[in-house]
Amino acid sequence: MRFIAVILVLITSLSDARAACNFDIEVGDSLVFSINEMSVESTCETVNITLSHTGSLPVEAMGHNWVLSKESEYQAIAMAGMSTGVVGNYLPDGDERIIAATKLVGGGEETSLSFSIANLDSSQAYAFFCSFPGHWGVMKGVFKIV
Q1: For the whole model, what pTM was predicted?
Q2: Dihedral angle sign, alpha carbons of residues 75, 137, 48, 17
Q3: What is the pLDDT of residues 16-40, one digit of tens each?
């Protein structure tokens, strides 16, 4: 029986370490995503992101979103989006550097997004981040295609 339990733990660990197409990400009333690296299978036709704000602060005070861009462009996108405010999700309208983005959510809210990675290059460095002013400097992670 103990052997079976060990095998189940190993299988669970391996499946957690594998790349995926679907991601559930939590954020709260702090500046932290529940994950800091995403490994996406190159065979995914669609990547699905669900962003859940588990905190209680409103979107105007502690809003969060999930934005994907090339790593080299995320800072410029965040800076350009500052003037758009909550209504514009702190993202520049029509900016082609944005690969995918959710809307901003506040405490108790959830949003989701589906997008294709067909035009992304697995050798390119990508980053996901929150574009809320002051958040993007620390709320950032690595997005890999494997």
Answers
A1: 0.86
A2: positive
A3: 445 799 999 999 999 999 999 999 9
